[in-house]
């Protein structure tokens, strides 16, 4: 447990140390946002990478060259709590997430999330959830790529739970490429050992983009199923 405590403490120090950069980020004009995103993304990415490195984990990325040079919707499976840090650190593209409303209570981290145009969802409020989709579409149209986890919760293993199709509307309404992302191994860092942080070998696999002309006319349920199958096959 000492290693786990030290890593949490190290993470807290890094987050506190990002306050000067956060103040600077707030001063950068939102327009054009794509330019702002590149400037402010370095700090969340660097903090995330240092935390992953502190755990002594290794991350292997394949297929990075497939990522289009434009805003996209990344669709990923969700094995563990470290998924977000791995994506921030190693995807090498400014990204935002749909996050639970409760995260807004976390100092500094929530402010960084606001800066990179994350959107916060109250899952108990259906009307608010619809607005989250609208906000997410606006973020993508402004130039920010976004990541969704259609399983809705962590699988804590290699099994991929059924994908919910609703959040795919972020991509289809914004009319941007949808890129499958397979995450494998992050559950070993925390969830596998009862909350103790340990090193793991992690794979991040970028799938072939699905462009608007390919998914137009396909129902969202079918699209979700197709992407889930791509990710399952990558894990196997």
From TrEMBL:
Residue ranges occupied by any Phospholipid/glycerol acyltransferase domain in the UniProt entry: 72-186
InterPro entries: AGP_acyltrans (IPR004552), Plipid/glycerol_acylTrfase (IPR002123)
Gene Ontology BP terms: phosphatidic acid biosynthetic process
Keywords: Acyltransferase, Lipid biosynthesis, Lipid metabolism, Phospholipid biosynthesis, Phospholipid metabolism, Transferase
GO MF assignments: 1-acylglycerol-3-phosphate O-acyltransferase activity
Reactions that this protein is recorded to catalyse: a 1-acyl-sn-glycero-3-phosphate + an acyl-CoA = a 1,2-diacyl-sn-glycero-3-phosphate + CoA
EC number: 2.3.1.51
GO CC terms of this entry: membrane
Pathway the protein acts in: Lipid metabolism
UniProt domain comment: The HXXXXD motif is essential for acyltransferase activity and may constitute the binding site for the phosphate moiety of the glycerol-3-phosphate.
Family: Belongs to the 1-acyl-sn-glycerol-3-phosphate acyltransferase family.
Protein name, entry field: 1-acyl-sn-glycerol-3-phosphate acyltransferase
Species whose genome carries this gene: Amphibacillus marinus
């Amino acid at each position: 447990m000492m290693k786990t405590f030290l890593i949490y403490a190290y993470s807290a120090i890094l987050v506190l140390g990002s306050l000067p950069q956060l103040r600077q980020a707030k001063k950068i004009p939102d327009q054009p946002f794509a330019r702002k995103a590149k400037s402010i993304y370095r700090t969340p990415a660097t903090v995330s990478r240092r935390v992953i490195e502190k755990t002594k984990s290794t991350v292997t990325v394949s297929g990075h060259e497939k990522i289009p040079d434009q805003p996209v919707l990344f669709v990923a499976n969700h094995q563990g709590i470290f998924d977000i840090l791995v994506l921030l650190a190693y995807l090498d593209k400014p990204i935002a997430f749909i996050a639970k409303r409760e995260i807004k209570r976390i100092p500094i981290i929530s402010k960084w999330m606001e800066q990179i145009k994350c959107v916060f969802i109250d899952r108990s409020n259906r009307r608010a959830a619809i607005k989250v989709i609208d906000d997410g579409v606006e973020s993508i149209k402004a130039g920010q790529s976004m990541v969704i986890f259609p399983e809705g919760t962590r699988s804590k293993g290699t099994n991929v739970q059924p994908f919910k199709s609703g959040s795919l509307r972020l991509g289809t309404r914004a009319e941007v490429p949808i890129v499958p992302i397979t995450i494998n191994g992050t559950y070993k860092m925390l969830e596998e050992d009862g909350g103790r942080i340990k090193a793991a070998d992690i794979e991040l696999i970028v799938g072939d983009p699905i462009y608007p002309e390919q998914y137009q006319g396909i129902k969202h349920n079918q699209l979700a199923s197709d992407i889930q199958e791509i990710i399952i096959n990558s894990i196997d």
